[in-house]
Structures are given as structure tokens and as C-alpha cells.
């Protein structure tokens, strides 16, 4: 595996590979890698000639300084995991490579409706930071394929919208890959490293609540199934930020449904100062 820290060096290397007709796949990460990340590497290995990953803990997407300071750093382990998985290139930039003009000098992105709901409502500025780092990474790597995990479903939609705004939709295809889960259903996440035993024994609550919605959703009002799912989270001791069902395409929040479209249930809740998010695709056919 080639490790590159310079944006210009990476761009030159990848330009040479593309001139040879090789197809590139890109998996951006913030490190603290787990099997969910490795599954994205595997998806790329099946489709692409060159698999590139990046590790960069992006300060601009943290609206809580404490959260940024506590984000887990496991670089040596991450490098070993990527090598073992077959990743060919790791981009490991210092902050000045991503923000050469400083983190306070950034473009503002018009995110519209997607930036105002769910995570956008509870984490102001978060998606601006995501778009800032992704714009820079996309322009450096210019991948043919971009692989994202479904666990961050709204973020996937935001990044897809960003690619369209940048005029890259014909150059970079987005692949949203399934969430990997622990045996009890907890979605794999880098932040799970911060979960203590007390939180861990209750952390399956989101999965149980979302599964209840999926198994009990019926045409018409969703009020009853929502109340039942909320009761599950209440019983587990969660403080709920949101529990919603939306159109899987545009994330329009729905109160009822009467057709066969694909929906997604999304939730965010906190237990003992640990905030978890999750989602689950639903079919109404």
C-alpha cells in the first residue's frame, strides 16, 4: 500500500493511473476503522482497478469541540487493516493540505431542505463541514466511484447533492453500501469505541425500535407505530432527538403513507451522554 500525504503528489499519481485507463474507487474515512469501513474497501475491490482510502479527522464538521478532541485515533491499527484488506493507496493529509487557507476560510454551501432536517437541525454547521472536506477530497482524488456507508444516510444524500452541485455527477458515481451491524444489531461505528458497558447493554435500542417500525408499518397514519417505537427507546433510557420516517429518495418527512414507495426510518438518541444514530430502509409494497 502506498501512503501519500501531499495532495499534489496524490493528484499526479492518480492522473497517471487514469491515463493508463485504470478505474479508481475512493473510500473517505476519519480513521478508527472497523469492519464497516473494510466492507467498503471490498466493494471497491470488486469494481475498481485502484482502491484509495483517506484518513482525515475533519475539524470543521464537529459542532462540539469536546467531541472533536475525544474522537478515537488508531492510526497504526488502521494502516494494518487497510493493508490487509487490499487497499492500494492511503491518503493521510495534514490539515494544511485540506485547508491551505486555514479552517476559518471556507466556502458556504447551499444545502436547502436536506441541511435543515434531522442531523441538520440537531448539529448546526455539521453538514457545512462535511461538504467543505468532501469538496476538497473529491477535487484531489477525482474518483470514478465513491463508496459511502448507509449508516450515515442523510450524509450520503448531502454528499450526492454536493457532487451534483460541483458538476461531477458524470465523473463520480456514488455507491451507498449496507450498514454492517454487531450481533445484537448495533450499527458499527467508530464512535462505538467510546461506549462503556452500561451504554453497550442498552445500545441495541435503536435497532429494536427501527425494526419494530419496519415490521409493523401499515398504510395510513404512522402515529401508533411511532409511539410504540418511542416507548422502546424510553424503556431503554434513551433521550430521543428524532425518530422519523422519510421518503428514501429526497428525505421528505412523512406522517403517513398510502403508496408503494421506498421509505427510510431514521433515529438519533442519547444514552448516558453517548449519541447514537441509525436508519433502516423500509418497503411499503
CATH superfamily of the largest domain: HUPs
Low-confidence parts, pLDDT < 50 over ≥5 residues? none
Q: Radius of gyration in whole Å, from Cα?
A: 19 Å
Strand count, sense and barrel status of the largest sheet are:
6 strands, parallel
Order of helices and strands: EHEHEHHEHHHEHEHHEHEEEEE
Query: What name is given to the CATH topology of the largest domain?
Result: Rossmann fold
State the secondary-structure class: alpha/beta
Head-to-tail CA distance between termini: 45 Å
Average pLDDT confidence is 94
Query: Treating each run of at least 4 consecutive H or I residues as one helix, how many helices?
Result: 11
* CATH class placement of the largest domain: Alpha Beta
Proportion in helices: 25-40%
Overall strand count: 12
CATH architecture of the largest domain: 3-Layer(aba) Sandwich
General form: globular
Order of neighbouring strands in the sheet with most strands: 1-4-3-2-5-6
User: What percentage of the residues does DSSP assign to strands (E)?
Assistant: 15-25%
Number of domains: 2
Describe this structure in words.
The chain has helices at residues 7-19, 35-47, 65-70, 75-85, 95-98, 119-122, 126-141, 153-165, 197-200, 205-216, 223-236; strands at residues 2-4, 24-29, 50-55, 89-91, 145-149, 173-177, 220-221, 239-247, 253-254, 256-257, 262-271, 274-283. The protein is an alpha/beta fold. It has 2 domains: 2-177, Rossmann fold; 190-278, 2-Layer Sandwich (Pantoate--beta-alanine Ligase, Chain: A,domain 2), CATH 3.30.1300. The chain has a 6-stranded parallel sheet with strand order 1-4-3-2-5-6, sandwiched between helices. It has a 4-stranded antiparallel sheet with strand order 9-8-11-12, covered by helices on one side. It has a two-stranded antiparallel sheet with strand order 7-10. Strand 2, helix 2 (35-47) and strand 3 form a beta-alpha-beta unit. The longest helix has 16 residues, at 126-141.
Amino acid at each position: 500500500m502506498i501512503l501519500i500525504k501531499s495532495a499534489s503528489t496524490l493528484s499526479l499519481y492518480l492522473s497517471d493511473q487514469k491515463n493508463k485507463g485504470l478505474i479508481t474507487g475512493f473510500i473517505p474515512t476519519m480513521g478508527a476503522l472497523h469492519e464497516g469501513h473494510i466492507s467498503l474497501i471490498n466493494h471497491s475491490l470488486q469494481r475498481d482497478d485502484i482502491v484509495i482510502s483517506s484518513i482525515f479527522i475533519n475539524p470543521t464538521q464537529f459542532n462540539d469541540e469536546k467531541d472533536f478532541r475525544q474522537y478515537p485515533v488508531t492510526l497504526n491499527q488502521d494502516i494494518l487493516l487497510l493493508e490487509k484488506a487490499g487497499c492500494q493507496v492511503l491518503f493521510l493529509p495534514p490539515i494544511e493540505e485540506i485547508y491551505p487557507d486555514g479552517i476559518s476560510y471556507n466556502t458556504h454551501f447551499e444545502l436547502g431542505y436536506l441541511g435543515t432536517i434531522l442531523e441538520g437541525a440537531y448539529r448546526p454547521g455539521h453538514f457545512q463541514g462535511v461538504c467543505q472536506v468532501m469538496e476538497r477530497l473529491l477535487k484531489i482524488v477525482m474518483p470514478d466511484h465513491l463508496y459511502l456507508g448507509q449508516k450515515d444516510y442523510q450524509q450520503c444524500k448531502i454528499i450526492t447533492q454536493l457532487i451534483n452541485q460541483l458538476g461531477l455527477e458524470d465523473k463520480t458515481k456514488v455507491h451507498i453500501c449496507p450498514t454492517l451491524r454487531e450481533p445484537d444489531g448495533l450499527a458499527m461505528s467508530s464512535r462505538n469505541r467510546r461506549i462503556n458497558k452500561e451504554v453497550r447493554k442498552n445500545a441495541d435500542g435503536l435497532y429494536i425500535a427501527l425494526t419494530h417500525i419496519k415490521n409493523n408499518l401499515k398504510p395510513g397514519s404512522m402515529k401508533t407505530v411511532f409511539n410504540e417505537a418511542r416507548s422502546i427507546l424510553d424503556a431503554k433510557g434513551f433521550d430521543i432527538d428524532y425518530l422519523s420516517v422519510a421518503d428514501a429518495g429526497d428525505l421528505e418527512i412523512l406522517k403517513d403513507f398510502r403508496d408503494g414507495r421506498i421509505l427510510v426510518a431514521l433515529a438519533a438518541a442519547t444514552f448516558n451522554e453517548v449519541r447514537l444514530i441509525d436508519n433502516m430502509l423500509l418497503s411499503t409494497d
